[in-house]
Every structure is written in structure tokens, then in C-alpha cells.
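Budget justification note: compute hours in this period were largely spent on complex prediction jobs such as the one shown. Inputs:
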Amino acid sequence: MHLETGGSPPGNYFSGETAGRQPAQNAVIPTPEVRLSGLLSQLETDWRIHGDAFEIVMQGLRCVVAIHPADMRTVLTDPNYKDKGPLYRGVRLILGDGILTTSGAEWKTSRRAITPAFHPGQMNAMADTMAAIGENFVQDLRERPDLGRVDLRAEMTALTLDTIMATLFGNRIDPKQDGLLYETVTDAFNLAGSLGGNQAPSEEAQQKYTAVTGSLNAVAQRMIDSARKDEPDGSVLSMLIHSKDETGSYLDDQTIRNELLTLMFAGHETTALTLTWLFKMLENRPDITRRIQQEVQTVLAGQPPGFQDFPKLAYTRQVIDEVLRLRPVVSLIARTAEEKAKIHNFTIEPGDTVVPFIWATHRHPDFWDEPEVFNPDRFSAVNSAGRDRWSYLPFAAGSRICIGKGLALTELTIHTALLMHHFDVKVLPNNVAPEMHITLRPNGPVYAALSPRQTYRNNP
Ligand code: HEM
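Corresponding output:
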């Protein structure tokens, strides 16, 4: 079957302006339309002024922003908020209707088809694959002549794209050789934010959209065709090809394409950005860097990493948890209400959109001591006891919790351990700040000088 592009009309994703209609006790702040990249500072300011819930207008929609853990719990567990709604239009345009964007029966079919690929039992083999990919990556990197100035985000994206291709799709294509350069994927996400809306997209944006979706579709089709020829192999692609929907029919190529691209997108930019933020946050923290390196040295004890090492890298994992608190790469999500309800002191009408603002929940002073301080010790077992689970939501929660949470945490731990074991990473001075796109990206390149260290390989 011929693949078409995603299934929804173009729309600006998360462009915001403050609402005209505010609760009586709050002042109206007239703010011009802000694009997604300016949204983070606007929402932070609104939070400081208005408190744990406030109204804004995004994409012409009245939205209530929710921050308090009790409200996060309501929005993420109450079936009234099961629909993702119109703010996901831009993403749907690129990825089509798949597990990330649909709801109801359609979503259930997707989730049921994909879940077995993420079963904890699969993680053992996946971790070994990740470690092998990571090991190749660091060995190649050690040989590079340009280690004095490496673009961390580009390198981490290449690493995580290779990882997802190997762990989920059985290496059916080589991203470097098959036209799926990471720029294509990044371009596609950028386009999700710039196409459509109330204004007609520019000719340039339309041409780019056609080119980007064309190459994504071609790559997806090649992978599907290749997997169809083979026996079931336990990869997610193979599971999709052999699974049936609620009517008992096999999924068609368009549906498989949507799920495939969704997993590819959701599954590598998030981890690449988290690794980039991790090195940026360690920039002035030699104390934490040393502790990670000591732990890795002790745990690996002269051996390459494997699945059995994952639980032993407890401090490394705490650092990752803290990076995900201060730089939650999915900082903001959305749900649409089906029926009239209440969030905080706001009445929610049917069709209204509620926006859980994870970034702010992770900094809520009633739930976090010194919220802006980077302190991985807050995630030790002792310090985590009794924490409100709805105050920490980097992977969301409830039925729509990130399906890749286990995979992501395993991957982040293995790659962090390997990179820190092999290199001293010195981030080069550059004032980069987080900027909200669909994911939370640095607003400029993060360069680092890498110095190879003595390792189990060259110092047995
Ligand atoms: C640091 C890494 C990651 C973070 C912070 C993250 C975060 C999230 C969040 C917050 C959601 C909820 C989105 C919403 O409600 O709109 C989500 C959903 C999702 N994530 Fe992740 N994710 C990460 C890695 C991954 C990986 C590695 C994969 C796949 C291999 C993945 C696949 C998905 C999918 C398919 C969904 C939609 C699930 C559903 O609606 O049933 N994610 N993720």
C-alpha cells in the first residue's frame, strides 16, 4: 500500500498568548502572540504571578495550565481527560494517527500491539544491544581527530538514533547510509511547529514538508517491506506487522508507518537531549562528575557494561533522575476535557484543554527543597521516601505513561556510564538556555572538548 503523510490538517503546535478571560482575582497580562520557543519563560512568569493554575490561549484555544501535583493526578488519571486534543495537530501532521496522538479504541489497539516489545523480559537483550552500540560509538569517537570541539547534541542524536534502530527495529536500515540523517528527523519536528495554523503555510514550509515526509515515508516503507519478508523476530516492527486490530484484521502499511515513525521520533530525540542536558548540567560540578566516574569504575571492574550492571549504577541513575527533573525534555503535555469539571479554581468546559506543565511541577517549592539546585542526592532511596509521586512526572503517568520509560532509563544509564568511563567531558563556555519546542532543546549548540581516559580496554 502506498504511504501517505500524516492525517490531520496543519496547525501551529503550542504557540501561545495569554488569555483575555482571566479569573476575577488575577490581573490580565496583555502579551503578544508568543511562538513555542518563547513559551517557557512566559509560562514560568505566569506561574509566579498567578499560582498553580492559570489560563492562557494557545493556538486560539482556551487552555488551563495545571501545575499542582493534585491536579496532575486528576488530569492524568480521570477518564474525562483521555483525549489529547487539538494541540497535538502539528505532531499528527508528521506522524499521523498513532499511539502518541490517538485516544479511545484506536489508541488501545496501538498500545496493545506495541506493549509486548517493551516487556521487562525484553530489556535484558535490549540492554546488551545498547551496550554494544554504545561501545562501538565510544571506540569510534576515541579515534576522532576533532575531539577538541564536539557538538554534543549532534553526537548524542546519532548515538540514540542508532540505538533505537537496533533495539526496536532490528537494524533494518543504517541511519547514516539510508537517508535518515538525524537532520531529517529534527527538521520534521521543527516543521510540526511551523506549518499551518490560521495562516497558510509559506511555500518554503510546504516544500520542506513534502521533502521531509517524502524521505521519512520512503525509509518507513523500506523497513516495512524488509520486515514483511522475514519470519517474526520479536522486534516491535515485526510485532506490528503480525498484530491484528479489534476487527481481527492485520494493520495496514499506513498504520504501521505511523507507529514506526512515532517510536522513532519519541524514542531518540528525548534521550539525545537528556544526555546533552546531563553534560551541560555537569559543566561546573566536578564533585558529581567524579562520583559518577568512581561508581562506573567500580561497577564495570574492568568489563564492558551489561544488563546486570544497570541496578548497580545507582548514583549514575540518581544524576539522570535529577537531570530529568530540571530539564524534563517533555515539559508540557495536553488533554481535552469531555465533560464540565473543575481544575483548581477554574471551571473546565467540555472541549477545553488542560495543559499539565511538568517543568513547573518539578520546581514546586511545596514539594522540592531548593528546587533550582542540581542535587542528585535528592533521589537517593532515603531522600525519595515519602515523596508525592505526582510531583515528579518526566514520563507522565496513568494509562498514557511513556511506553519507553524503562527502555529510556536503561539506555540513559548505559550510555552515560560508557561516555563518562571513556572521556573527560569539558563543556565549552556558551550561554545556552532551555527553549521549548515540542521537546526541550538548548537554544544553541553545546560544544565540548573530550579527553579520552584510561579504560578497561586500554588499561586492563
Ligand atoms: C528521556 C526520555 C523520554 C522522556 C522524558 C519521555 C517522556 C514522555 C512523556 C512525558 C510522554 C507522555 C506524552 C503525552 O501524554 O502527551 C511520553 C509518551 C510516549 N513515549 Fe516517551 N519519553 C522518553 C523516551 C521514550 C522512548 C525511548 C520511547 C520509545 C522507544 C518513547 C515512546 C513514547 C510513546 C510511544 C509515548 C506515547 C504513549 C501513549 O500515549 O500510550 N519515549 N513520553
